[in-house]
Amino acid sequence: MFNECIDHAGGFTTGTATEAHAMMLLQRGQRRGCHIEATRAGGALVSWTRLQFGPVDGQVDTVARSIKLTPVTPLTSILRGGTVRHDLATIDAHSRSRWESARSRRVVVVGLDGIEAVTGEALHRDGLVTEAPGGRVRLTLAARLGLLAYEHRRRTPWRGRAAYCTCGMSAPGSDPRAEARDVWRAHLRAVTAEFVTGLARPSARTA
Length: 207
Description:
Layout lengths: L1 E7 L2 E7 L1 H13 L3 E4 L5 E10 L6 E12 L10 H12 L4 E5 L2 E6 L2 E3 L1 H9 L3 E3 L5 E3 L1 H11 L2 E2 L6 E4 L4 E3 L6 H21 L8
Antiparallel strand pairs: 1-2, 1-5, 3-4, 4-5, 6-7, 7-8, 9-10, 11-12, 12-13
Helix pairs in contact: 1-5
């Protein structure tokens, strides 16, 4: 479940969105050419601009609008743990990950291995994994967005003229504080757009 905040002409409207609704918002935003950025909290920012008549005759202003999605349980601090990210990557890499009972507790079975019951329960409680049809385990949309953002964090050297991303991307820039930030942001938007495109393709991870 996500908290949803819409920035519109009349101010802000807040509410909640299910995973299915959040996915629809991302896909619709991409079809309409909006910018979409994954966040380390496990959400996304959908932003766009539109033209609006100003108070003076003939005046036309460009105004920014956005929809911000944030999980009810933000994942920023949870995903800092290397073990958590490793467990999630392991589950995500195996389409046959599933829940099984072991000594009256449910464990996540991944291939020939398993994730400890207490770990699996914590991942489920924190909104990182959910049960799909047939008892399979998959990552939630929030977990996947959070991991994506975590894999693409900005690094700008104190002395330098380049934008670096933790994924290895680098680009020259004339101002490490402004231009580098814009280069990295364009990169994050590009990888998020690729991620959203993948949501439209049926797969074991999202089925």
